[in-house]
């Protein structure tokens, strides 16, 4: 700070800082040297007593003009210590937060002398060179006129060389477009210019600068030149960057620790030696709907099932007394009042003398294991229900066969219903096999058992839908999500695909519009196309078996579903014949699957077609209008 004051005091003139209303709060040594008065005499509006009475009104008017951002030279006479008035020119520049800095320069010797070029004004040149910033003067259209010595030193060039340089020679390439646009806007609108940019130093290094340019105007308001001052703010920029980096690293460390604890697949907690809980992780809070403060102490016990609360409390007390690790099974209440089984483990942390310092624990969800135990007891009942459903479907099939007027109806129903019927038996057997594994595949068994019941219901639904289709009765029309319908079919066929070594790749378009139609019939079409594609790859050797099921919108804004395989393909001559009833290229096929599928799609105002791939295999695709009031 003392060095900066020395620079200010060395300026040839009277430098000062003031508020916008003209109240001075600092003057340089030049004030005392010239006026013979103390700095305190100048504070506030005391400085005005040194201004010639005839010049004070014009000076104050010019002062107010400068406050509006217009750079003007204000001339007035100041009283010297010996009683002599000399002419001075006053220039003002903004600082920050409503403060301004100014400089009174003695021009008495130049009054009445023709104006000389700016660079020849020795006193002004000295003042400009003393300013600790890059100062440049430019013509009204923005051409460089002269610069101070700091500019020449920083850029490592002469004034004549700088006049030949382009803006891109000094400005960082990333900042160049913004600098050019801002400067051209200032010149065009005659408004002050502000910017932050990087300027290349003579050694090739870039420093950040805060640049500000103000227009100087004559008495008629015309711009006579631009004054550009660029202050080096590189150190401040680096400091801000370091602070931001440090804060980011601290935040990242905290986030990593929090993420590690919360990523543990279970509920983590800790307790004091007396058993009072002091911490639970976010997963515990999310599950129970309780806050950390609510869980502290023994508040966590409110989440335990009433039937398990007393046994758990007794067991926990025994662990605290023995100081040994242990585990217990209990039901914990979820935020929605649903209980799930958990395995509660507790481990003590001991000091060097063996005393318990703290308890750490984890609660692991074992609901699936508990469900498996109940599922094993009820699986026989569910299988019996599936067999009863199968008998019912077969009875319905026999009845339809007797009353149908066309032989194709019986064949169609047998073909379309046999698939979910076979799935019922397969799923039931698979469920038992999963439960018999060590360890049991609980989640798979649960899902397979659900599919067993669902397949039975679906088989019955197929009978009803096909009866309505061929008897011209009203079918069940609803909004169908084709993606969801396809996923259900794929889930049902996963076992079949795996047994045949087929890798299925779904490619579903997000936000697919719904279609109006019969869900079961559309799923029967999807099922038939996937099974046909699987069979087409059964005899394939020498390459992997790939099958893709994709959905999307066609050019007519219709929803399509395509099944693409890399199997043996088909003869182009069969492209239409394969959709004819009882036409088949398979050894064991009945030849009615594609015929039934096409009739279903056409009933939905859609189109089912087949095409040979550019590579191996074929693609079967159907499309249905995305919006339709009725079918």
UniProtKB/TrEMBL annotation:
Record-annotated membrane-spanning stretches: none
One GO MF term: phosphorelay sensor kinase activity
UniProt cross-references to Gene3D superfamilies, sorted A to Z: 1.10.287.130, Histidine kinase-like ATPase, C-terminal domain, PAS domain
Lineage top rank: taxon: Bacteria
PAS domain residues: 1-70, 253-323
Span of domain Histidine kinase: 412-628
Swiss-Prot/TrEMBL keywords: Kinase, Phosphoprotein, Transferase
Residue ranges of every copy of the PAC domain listed in the record: 193-245, 326-378
A Pfam family it matches: HATPase_c
InterPro entries named among the record's database cross-references: HATPase_C_sf (IPR036890), HATPase_dom (IPR003594), His_kinase_dom (IPR005467), HisK_dim/P_dom (IPR003661), HisK_dim/P_sf (IPR036097), PAC (IPR001610), PAS (IPR000014), PAS-assoc_C (IPR000700)
Catalytic activity field: ATP + protein L-histidine = ADP + protein N-phospho-L-histidine
SMART domains, alphabetized: HATPase_c, HisKA, PAC, PAS
EC number in record: 2.7.13.3
PANTHER family membership: PAC DOMAIN-CONTAINING PROTEIN, PHYTOCHROME-LIKE PROTEIN CPH1
Name by which UniProt lists this protein: histidine kinase
Organism for this UniProt entry: Pseudomonas poae
Source organism phylogeny: Bacteria, Pseudomonadati, Pseudomonadota, Gammaproteobacteria, Pseudomonadales
């Amino acid at each position: 700070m003392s060095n900066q004051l020395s620079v200010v005091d060395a300026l040839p003139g009277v430098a000062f800082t003031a508020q916008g209303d003209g109240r001075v709060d600092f003057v340089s040594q030049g004030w005392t040297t010239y006026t013979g008065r103390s700095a305190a005499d100048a504070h506030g509006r005391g400085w005005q007593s040194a201004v010639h009475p005839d010049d004070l009104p014009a000076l104050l008017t010019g002062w107010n003009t400068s406050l509006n951002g217009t750079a003007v030279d204000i001339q007035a006479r100041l009283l010297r210590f010996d009683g002599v008035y000399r002419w001075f020119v006053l220039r003002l520049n903004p600082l920050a937060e409503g403060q301004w800095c100014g400089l009174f320069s003695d021009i008495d010797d130049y009054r009445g002398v023709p104006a000389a070029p700016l660079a020849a004004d020795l006193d002004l040149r000295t003042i400009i060179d003393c300013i600790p910033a890059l100062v440049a003067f430019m013509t009204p259209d923005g051409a460089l006129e002269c610069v101070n010595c700091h500019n020449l030193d920083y850029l490592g060039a002469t004034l004549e060389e700088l006049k030949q340089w382009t803006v891109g020679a000094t400005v960082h390439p990333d900042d160049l477009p913004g600098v050019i646009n801002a400067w051209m806007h200032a010149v065009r609108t005659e408004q002050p210019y502000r910017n932050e940019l990087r300027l290349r130093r003579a050694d090739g290094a870039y420093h950040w600068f805060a640049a500000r340019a103000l227009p100087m105007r004559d008495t008629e308001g015309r711009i006579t030149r631009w004054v550009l001052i660029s202050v080096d703010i590189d150190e401040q920029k680096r400091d801000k960057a370091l602070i931001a980096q440090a804060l980011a690293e601290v935040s990242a460390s905290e986030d990593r620790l929090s993420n590690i604890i919360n990523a543990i697949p279970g509920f983590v907690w800790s307790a004091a030696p007396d058993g009072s809980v002091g911490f639970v992780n976010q997963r515990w809070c999310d599950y129970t709907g309780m806050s950390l403060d609510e869980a502290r102490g023994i508040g966590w016990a409110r989440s335990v099932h009433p039937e398990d609360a007393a046994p758990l409390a007794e067991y926990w007390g025994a662990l605290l007394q023995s100081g040994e690790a242990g585990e217990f099974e209990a039901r914990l209440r979820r935020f929605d009042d649903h209980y799930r089984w958990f395995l509660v483990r507790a481990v003590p942390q001991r000091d060097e003398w063996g005393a318990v310092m703290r308890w750490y624990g984890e609660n692991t969800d074992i609901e699936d294991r508990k469900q498996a135990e109940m599922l094993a007891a009820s699986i026989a009942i569910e299988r019996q229900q599936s067999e009863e459903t199968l008998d019912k479907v077969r009875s319905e099939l026999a009845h339809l066969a007797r009353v149908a007027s066309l032989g194709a109806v019986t064949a169609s129903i047998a073909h379309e219903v046999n698939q979910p019927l076979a799935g019922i038996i397969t799923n039931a057997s698979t469920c038992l096999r999963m439960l018999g594994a060590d360890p049991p595949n609980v989640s798979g068994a649960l899902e397979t058992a659900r599919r067993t019941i669902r397949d039975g219901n679906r088989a019955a639904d197929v009978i009803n839908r096909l009866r309505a289709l061929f008897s011209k009765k009203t079918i069940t029309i609803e909004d169908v999500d084709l993606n969801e319908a396809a996923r259900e079919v794929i889930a049902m066929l996963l076992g079949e695909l795996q047994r045949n070594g087929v890798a299925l790749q779904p490619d579903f378009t997000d936000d697919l519009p719904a279609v109006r139609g019969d869900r079961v019939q559309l799923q029967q079409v999807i099922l038939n196309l996937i099974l046909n594609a699987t069979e087409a790859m059964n005899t394939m050797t020498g390459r992997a078996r790939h099958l893709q099921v994709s959905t999307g919108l066609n050019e007519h804004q219709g929803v399509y579903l395509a099944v693409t395989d890399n199997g043996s393909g088909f003869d182009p001559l069969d492209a239409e014949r394969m959709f004819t009833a009882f036409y088949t290229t398979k050894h064991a096929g009945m030849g009615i699957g594609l015929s039934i599928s096409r009739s279903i799609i056409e009933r939905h105002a859609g189109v089912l077609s087949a095409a040979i791939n550019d590579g191996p295999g074929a693609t079967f695709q159907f499309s249905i209008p995305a919006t339709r009031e009725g079918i």
